[in-house]
Automatic annotation (TrEMBL):
It comes from the Bacteria. One of its GO terms (molecular function) is transaminase activity. This is Aminotransferase class III-fold pyridoxal phosphate-dependent enzyme. Belongs to the class-III pyridoxal-phosphate-dependent aminotransferase family. The keyword Transferase applies. The keyword Cell membrane does not apply. It holds the Pfam family Aminotran_3. Its cofactor is pyridoxal 5'-phosphate. CDD domains: OAT_like. Keywords: Aminotransferase, Pyridoxal phosphate, Transferase.
Length: 455
């Protein structure tokens, strides 16, 4: 390693506070500093090169590294007009909104922000304001599902069903209520025939307990991502949609991970015939070449905020400065063109299915693999100590597996990260250009590591 890179690592160690990391470990071990990426591969300051099956560590560099086309589009836009406050329109914001909505039949308006948490906060404010405007403030509760994650800010964390993330940050915002998860592998009802329907009924029970007149919306991930890649069981979504309709509850789908082709359709909800009222997007919108997120609503939601002559106060009282940066929609537009031109939605579906089947084969060979789940290129391997009891492995085991994969040139997750967040699930979220050969490398490397561990 040259001295410049050694200095870089020391600067990082001495001055940077990494997210979601226990820094005490970095006294003994060098921090990992990434310096360059191309396609599906990334290189660190020590010159190690990896296949990145985590799309940038947090599942967002969907079209891959080193896309000069996106960088050029951002540069050109910044030189032309870098910013104007989002109370006004800009050229790339209008262009991207039109292109995005073509992929989302039934949806009608795009409201811009900069992160997934922020988009979800804005969606909560939309629900709360509708409650004020139409229901005297009574229909203000927002229900969220156990094991779903919706963001890091206090509001979004109040709507998050992961205890490990919430630990130490209470008190939380009032008006957020949890309902049970729908992970069939961890069925609350044992081995039953209609698990999907029973899991959906758990939502209904909570709506009835709280009083339907107090429940404004339910937020869901279409496929739970960070909570352990939970694909919904058969029959779940049709039953959920019926329940939400019956009690006049808005459906907010958080597509921060699943959106923009990650699961092999443009949006995760499009697998299940869900008709959302609100959709939030971030991560893959611009493959993280620029920070951008979106709240997408139906025309009916938008219309709630139009003055009808009687209430001129109805406009949405929300603004964020950086929603006016043009780098976001310029990058998003270039990103969307790449997804279309390179048929990455199809590639994700085809290579994702191939990798899923390879991982299922591994499950028959390795006793540590309890379950393999996922759709497209969002895949999870749940680790257990015993296939019969399904007792989860200690999180150190998952950390060790991720570390051994890294030594073999494969990134499947950070080695200083708590796998408790992921419910002891190894999550694979590769770049959407993944080839069959690269999928083979991922499965073979995991196979080798588990064989070495005799697991
Ligand atoms: N929703 C989901 C489903 C997420 O996975 C995340 C981030 N991992 C967020 C929201 C929050 O997004 P951000 O980190 O951009 O605030």
């Amino acid at each position: 390693m040259d001295s410049q890179m050694r200095q870089l690592i020391e600067k990082d160690r001495n001055h940077v506070w990494h997210h979601l990391s226990q820094h005490s470990g970095l006294k003994k071990q060098d921090p990992m500093v990434m310096v360059e990426g191309k396609g599906t591969r990334i290189t660190d300051a020590k010159g190690n090169n990896y296949l990145d099956a985590s799309s940038g560590g947090v599942w967002c560099v969907n079209v891959g590294y080193g896309r000069t086309e996106i960088a050029d589009a951002v540069r050109d836009q910044l030189v032309k007009l870098n910013f104007f406050g989002s109370t006004t329109g800009t050229e790339p914001a209008a262009e991207f909104a039109e292109k995005l909505l073509e992929k989302m039949p039934g949806m009608s308006r795009v409201y811009y922000a900069s992160s997934g948490s922020e988009a979800n906060e804005k969606a909560f404010k939309i629900v709360r304001q509708i409650s004020q405007l139409k229901y005297g403030g009574k229909k203000n509760k927002i229900l969220y599902r156990e094991r779903d994650y919706h963001g890091t800010t206090i509001g979004a964390l109040s709507a998050t069903g992961q205890e490990e993330r919430r630990l130490h940050y209470g008190p939380f915002a009032p008006g957020f209520v949890e309902f049970p998860h729908c992970c069939e592998y961890r069925s609350q009802f044992g081995d039953v025939k209609d698990y999907g329907i029973l899991a959906a009924k758990e939502l209904e029970k909570v709506i009835l307990r709280e009083g339907p007149e107090t429940v404004g919306a339910v937020i869901f991930e279409p496929i739970t991502a960070g909570g352990g890649v939970i694909t919904p069981p058969e029959g779940y979504w049709p039953a959920v949609m019926e329940i939400c309709k019956k009690y006049n509850v808005l459906v907010h789908i958080d597509e921060v991970v699943c959106g923009m082709s990650r699961t092999g359709k443009w949006f995760g909800y499009q697998h299940y015939g869900i008709k959302p009222d609100i959709v939030t997007l971030a991560k893959g919108v611009a493959s993280s070449y620029a920070p951008i997120s979106c709240v997408v609503t139906t025309e009916a939601i938008f219309n709630e905020f139009l003055a009808d002559g009687s209430d001129r106060e109805a406009y949405f009282r929300d603004i964020s400065t950086y929603a006016g940066c043009t780098s976001g929609p310029a990058a998003a537009l270039a990103n969307l063109k790449i997804l279309e031109r390179e048929n990455l939605v199809e590639n994700t579906a085809v290579v994702g299915e191939y990798l899923l089947n390879k991982l299922k084969d591994l499950a028959t060979k390795h006793s540590i693999i309890g379950d393999v789940r996922g759709k497209g290129l969002l895949l999870g391997i749940e680790l257990v100590t015993d296939k019969q009891t399904k007792a989860p492995v200690d999180e150190q085991v998952a950390i060790k597996i991720a570390g051994m994969c890294m030594q073999k040139g494969l990134i499947i997750g950070r080695t200083n990260r708590s796998f408790k967040f992921l419910n002891n699930t190894l999550c694979l979220c590769p770049i959407l250009t993944l080839t069959h050969e690269e999928a083979d490398f991922i499965a073979d490397t995991i196979d080798q590591v588990l064989t070495e561990l005799n697991a």
